[in-house]
Structures are given as structure tokens and as C-alpha cells.
UniProtKB/TrEMBL annotation:
GO biological process: cell surface receptor signaling pathway
UniProt signal peptide: 1-22
Organism: Hibiscus syriacus
Compartment(s): Membrane
Molecular-function annotations in GO: ATP binding; calcium ion binding; polysaccharide binding; protein serine/threonine kinase activity
PANTHER family in the record: WALL-ASSOCIATED RECEPTOR KINASE-LIKE 21, WALL-ASSOCIATED RECEPTOR KINASE-LIKE 8
Membrane topology (UniProt): Single-pass type I membrane protein
SMART domains to which the protein is assigned, alphabetical: EGF_CA (SM00179), S_TKc (SM00220)
Protein name from the UniProt record: Protein kinase domain-containing protein
Keywords: ATP-binding, Disulfide bond, Glycoprotein, Kinase, Membrane, Nucleotide-binding, Phosphoprotein, Serine/threonine-protein kinase, Signal, Transferase, Transmembrane, Transmembrane helix
Chief subcellular location: membrane
Amino acid sequence: MVATFALCLSILLLLITNPALAAISTAKPGCKETCGNTKVPYPFGIGLHCSLNSWFEVSCNETSTPPTVLLKTTQMEVLNFSLRSSGYDSDLEFHRVKSPLVSMNCSRTEASLGVDLTGSPFFFSEFRNRIVACTSGTIFDGNITNTCSQGTCCETVMTSVLKTFDARSLRLGSDGCNSAYLVEQNWRDSYTADGSVGAVIDWAIPDEAFELSKSGKEYSCKQYGLILDEPHLDKSIRCYCNHGYQGNAYLLNGCQDIDECLDETKNPCGEVKCINRPGSYQCERRKTWVIPLGMGLGFGSLCLVMGGWWLYKFVKKRREIKLKKKFFKRNGGLLLQQQMFAKDGGLENTKIFTSKELDKATDNFNKNRVVGQGGQGTVYKGMLTDGRIVAVKKSKGMVAENVEEFINEVTILSQINHRHVVKLLGCCLETQVPLLVYEFVSNGTIFQYLHDQSDEFFMSWGTRIRIAKETSEALSYLHSSASIPIYHRDIKSTNILLDEKFKAKVSDFGISRLIPIDQTHLTTNVQGTFGYLDPEYFQSSQFTEKSDVYSFGVVLVELLTGEKPVSFERDENRRSLASYFINSVEENRVFDIVDSRVMKQAKREEVMMVAKLAYQCLSLSGKMRPMMKEVSIQLGHIL
């Protein structure tokens, strides 16, 4: 049920008896309050942004003398507004407009049709208006209980509220000059300077048009029944400042406390000391011992509170510092300093972020900001205070092995500067789990485009070869151009990201390793992703740069076929994509497993060149596989 909000505006100018009230503006903050000598209280306002809505917008014509106020939606001139300042005022709230006139057969105002307020929140007041009719014939209407004798004027009370007052609602006689108009009850005393009289208009608003909080100590709102023809105006709510407050109850903080003790002529306490209270006052006799006692107690209490507050802040700060140091040490901060500061070009270009910065950037690591999840952690999209969009990687709970992997990733990425490798911007170690901050790569992974694709997002043959070449350039750089060779150890399609221009970016160095220049392999526990793992490494636990080549070969086959590296939906002898591809090449059935949409775009000789290159990369013997630099050169010839 639509509740409504209603209030009436009166025929009399607001009489300000309390000096404090004059200083309280009743208009919306920042808006003009008066037009000439006429005050315009909210929800009315001069201009749309200063009123509740378009119905309550008024315009101020300052070119006329005196300036005139016009209610824009009804085009009625407003003579004055009045606002009830407190619940104990006798006046309710209305506004007065120039009285509408209906006439027929009168030469001066021929066929004046009056006013139609249908559909608006305004209506003529039933109790504060009456109808005056002047006729040389006869007028009769349901709202006029009298019949005027010929050539006379008469007046009568209204029996219900009116939304329209025009020639359609009044049956004016057809002979002679006949006219009728609405005026307020005491209309004889309300003439304006130009001889006009006023009619009283009330108004009502459905509650969804006006956000009103619950009644508080400063103001009250009460609901009254209101009988109208329009269902959305079936009830009304009137608000006013409570006793001891004054102002505009329809504005936020619009009711202000009245200081009763300021009015010396009406001091409610007489010779006794008057103490102002919110909404009231208190009379209290002065006692000499009370003041110093109160001051002493107040000062002691203040010292106690301030001391307790300072102690709480001090202990809390110490606890936070201690906890951050604990996290820094547990998350490998000492190891990071040992590995990074001991090398040229260490942490100078890597920012150490605070937890507060990254909380703000990721909206406290909101689940809606998650853009990826991997074996080493979860990645969130964030925005730094300087406007940069970043990816924040939140590592999993720390055990000794995970700490080493995290610090290892920071150490490796801090030394890498390549256009096809994701750039590390910084890290944070003072949180419960460590955080890495990367540049944000916006277009997902090639895995998504190959295996979750539709015809609308088909990855063309040229794009696939270009991505393969860019990835091979990045791996070639890691293997041979970095200051210390780096083995990625987890090359797969989910770790190859695409930026806004669909350029490849190699990511996720959590299990990567730096290799001393005088060594050719790394002996470790077998780690990697099933389907991409080098069989030779799996058997010997010795990882070489050719192990990365094997994993890249699987990615090449993915790009050729559009198939996943491992799928239990395929037959048993086809579950491993690498084995199935090798058998197809050896049986001269390459074109049978290549993506049919690729075959429509690519030249057969280009497909065979890529297939042979992938076959070489997937050789069971690492010595037979090409170097990544050779792979990059061959892919460049195809492009």
C-alpha cells in the first residue's frame, strides 16, 4: 500500500516571534531562500535542484515589482508560503495562490476556465476555502448549496476537497455575466496590493517520493486520514519540530534546539540560574562547592579517559607492529632481503606495498574481484590510488615450502624485463599470507579462447601463430638472455595471458628456478602440470631448458588442434594429447586432428611446418628437441 506524505500551507504570513528562528534557513542548503519578500521553504524551491521534485519547483520573476513567485507546473502565482515551525504552533502549513476565476458572458474575462489540478499533488482546501458566485442569472453546483438570486453575489462553504475548479465543474447560467471564484475563509481581510484575493491550496506526496527517517527527539511525524478521489493520495503524513526545537522538519537536521535561556525578557527561571538542555531547559540554584567539585571530577574523568584511550592506542599500535614483523619474517622477508639486496638492481624497482593500500585497491579482497585461481594462490583485480589497474596475487597459507616458492617468484620477476613476460610491480609481506602485485593483463588466457571458445570468439590461425612466437621469444629470453638462466617449469596455456592487444604475456613463476651459468640441469622433486610434464624429467628428476621446450610443444599442439592436453572424454589411447599427436604424425594423419576451422584458414604447408616443429619439441629425448631460440626463429618464418 502506498503511504502518502501530506502537508498544508496557510493563508497568513509566517510570524517570527523568536529571534533564534530568523537565523535558521528553511530552504535546501545552498539554495536561494527568498524571492523578494517571499520566503520559499523546502520541499518547495527556486529551481528544480532546490525542490523535492518538479511539482514543487517555483520560479522567481525579479523583473516585476514586487518580484513574483510562480508554481511552474500549475502556472499559478503564489502569494505567500507558511511553514509550521513546531508541534505547538497553532498554524498548520499551507500556501496561498491568486484565486482562480471562472466566468461566462463577461466582457473583461470572457470564458476564463479556472484551474485543473488533476494528477498533481495539489488540491483546494475543503475547510479553508469558500466559493463566491456573482451572477445576473442562476448558478447551481454540487459544491454550492445556495441559489443566487438574479443580479447578486453569494458565498458558501465547500463540502469536499476540489482537484478542479473550472467551467466543467460549475454550471454557470447562460444569460448575462456569470462568474465564480474560490477564496479563503477570511477573504475580506486578505486583499493584496493589486486587489487580488487568495485561495488556499493543500498538497500531498506519496512516501516513495520523499525519503523520511523515523521520528527522532528533534521532530515528529504523524499520519492522518485524507479523503481524495486519487488512490495515491489516500493518506498523509505531517511533520513538525518537537517542543523545544524550531525550523524545517523536512530538511536533514532542519530542527534546531531553542535556547530558552537567551530571551532575558522571558527568562523561565526568573532569578534562578537557567541552564539550556536539548529540547528543554533546567532551573538550578548556584552552589559554591558544586563548581570546583564538578571541575575536579570532570578534569579527573577527562584525564582517566584520555589516559585510557592513549594506552589502548599505544598497545594496539605495538601489537600491530609486532604482528606485521612476525608476518614479515614468516612470509620470507629476511630471505627476500638476503636474495634481493645482495644483487645489483634488486628491490630498487620493486615497491613494497602496505596491507592498507592493497585492502583499498581490492575492496578488502572482495570475491567479486577474483580473476583467477592457481596452484600457488588466488588473483584479484584491483586499482591503486594513482589509477593503475593491477592484479594482486594472494598466496596460499604459508608452510616452509610455499614461502620459498613465493620469495623465489619475487626474486625471479624482479630481474625480468621483457614485453612478453608479466611485469612485477611489488609485494606485501606484512599480511597473514604474502601478496604479489603485477601489471593487470586484461584479456584472460589462451586456454579460455581455445577450450571455452564459441564461433563468436574464434582464435584465428594468424593469431595462434603470433601468440606461439611471442611465447617462444619470452622463453628464449629466460633461457639465454636473462642475467642468470631461468627455467619456468610450468609452461601451459593457462599461464599464457593476453593483453588488451592480444599480445602474449608469460606468467606464474611460483616454481621457476634460477640456474647457475656453469650448470645444465636442476635436480628437484618433480613438479608441474599433468599433460605438460616432460617424461624425461619425470623419470630422472633432472629439469633442463629442454623440459620447458617439451611443455611448449604441448601448447603448440593445443593451438593446432583446439584440444585439451588431457581429456577423459577421449578414448583411452587418445587421452594424452601429446601421445595422440605423436602417433598421428608418425601415421601421417596430422590433418585429421587439426582444428577444422584452422584448416579453412591456414595453408597446408604452414600447418605441416608447425606440426613438425611441435613433433620435434615433444621428442622423448631432450637432446633431440630444439632450443627455444630455434623454435622462435622457425615460427617467425611462418609469420
